[in-house]
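Cross-posting from the modeling subforum.

Setting up a comparison between two proteins and wanted a second pair of eyes on the formatting. Protein 1 (sequence, then structure tokens):
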Amino acid sequence: MQPIEVGSPPAQINLGVPCAHCGVELAPALLLCPACKALVHRSELEALAKAAQRASQHGELAQAMASWRKALDLLPPESKQATRIGNVIRELREKLASGVAQPVAIDTAPALPAGSGFRRWGGALGSVLAFALFKLKSLWLLALTGWKPLLVGLTKLGTVWSMLLSLGVYWTLYGWQFALGLVLCIYVHEIGHVVALQRLGIAASSPMFIPGLGAVVRMNQYPIDVHEEATVGLAGPRWGLGISLFVFALSRLLHSPMLSAIAHVSAWINLFNLLPIPPLDGGRGFRALANPQRLLCAAVLGGVYFLTGQAFAGIIALVALARGFEKRPNDTGNPRILAEFLAIATLLALISRFAG
């Protein structure tokens, strides 16, 4: 299974037209006029700002974030406007994460001027069980929405064709039953990434399967910070855990060795993706963890390894231990990401152990 890829930001649609303020001929892809320092895409930025504000007023937070992210692509990264838009996206993201779909006040939207330690780990660890019960929404989302999120990729011809190609390869190697189960489990993992990206308003492709290697989702915009990157990265293993749990429970209900094997391999693949090595999903998740939190992961997953005997839990623990001593410019951690990482890794190791 391949990690999420980050594509290049979309090319700017500037064909050398003169600056609207001073008339200087502008080279393609310029975001700021070199002569008068005016924003080249000011009219587009104003339209995007209005669209984002309307979406916020109606509680459509994901759509608002999508509009603000398009605006970021048209602004110099070091500009004050880009910084302010980034802060608004973070505010909207926090509201979305907390389940509060309230209108965001207009005066909080960025204006576009014409010119231009171990102290918290205990509580985090204690929330792992609560997270697994209440925040692990994969199974609940599938059950309550009529499988609607799973239809996202099936409307794309590229996804369907690559999916069928992978199915044919695995069918030849393992038989059609195991092949179908494996492809569907990989698909659910990738849809987890897609749903998380859509929820955050980040433009991305639908899943594309690569026979023998898994599948990939290509991001067309960059996350604005490590917390966003970690959220998207862990969404795949979280949904992967959901489908692994479902197949494991079904295997016990039907006494099916085939379903048990599929659950085992699905859990194993998702556990592999949690290795805290870029660009795997675990590497993206680890970027949001402080060094003390990484050392805590090493300790907990070391215990999980001795409990389950699952090699990848031990490997994750060793890599986490090594990365716990990295020199980092900003050593602030995210307790929610820590709890999510530990919960997913622990449950995947248990499924792999008992389904194997």
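Protein 2 (same layout):
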Amino acid sequence: MKVAEADQAHPYDVHGLRSVTARILPKKARAMLSELNFQAEKAAFKWSRTPPRRLRLHISPDWFDFRLTGRDQVEFLVQKAGLKPEDHVLDVACGVGRIAIPLADFLNSEGRYAGFDVFDAGIDWCRKNISANDSRFSFLVANVRTDFRPQGADASAYAFEYDDASFDFCYAGSIFTHLTESEARNYLQQIRRVLKPGGRFVSTWLTYSDMEIAHIPGMKARLDRLWPFDQGGWRYRNDKSPGESVAYEQGRIRDLYRAAGLTVIEPFNADASYNCARIPATRSMGIHLHHSASLVAVVPPAGPAP
């Protein structure tokens, strides 16, 4: 692959063996094979600890290792953000339990977990396979309108369905990579509201900086290829679906945190899950992960939310 072609493939494009079967098998045969595989993966969860591919593909590309990235992210939460076994944890946009599954082995009897997502089928699966067997875990469907979900509240006005100061820890993995600025501003304010004084917050973002643009040759052109719609402080990839992929200027991120009453612990970190070490052989599918970062923030130990 030529470097100049780095933006040609979409992260969710079918690749590898699945691309071969998509070309050679009739549509009906592919559907039957997919259903058989789905049922087998459902039955195997107790030992595989991995949800069916059909559900995983709704939230991440096929080349993204669900089990290992969940493990690595929990390790990051412990090592860099001080996650404790007794913490009450909120998982924003929890998908199909990528960190919930390893957290089941980390949290003790006092620890609690709550996760929410707009993905109805994913939440249903988590309820049947995680919380049904572990009362420490709960999941709910967020009634939020997205590019792929026509009903619900606008994300810029959605109120998290949890009480004030009810969590010690919050994780938001790859949700701010899909939120416009007004939506991101609201989610940060909601996270600040539900966290206790002294609470910790880890989130992942796609980032760039004005200094990079000013000093790194070709940086603006590369950003224009990845996220061509520049809103001044944040960019998005697809004009018909802004939530598909969003990147933020690092100074703008700091401003958003400050406005929400959250203190960023510098520096920005490489994300434990969405990082360049996981870009697949078809490099262009994940070249944007060079811009992925993980932020650790804290709630001041005392004082009202803004």
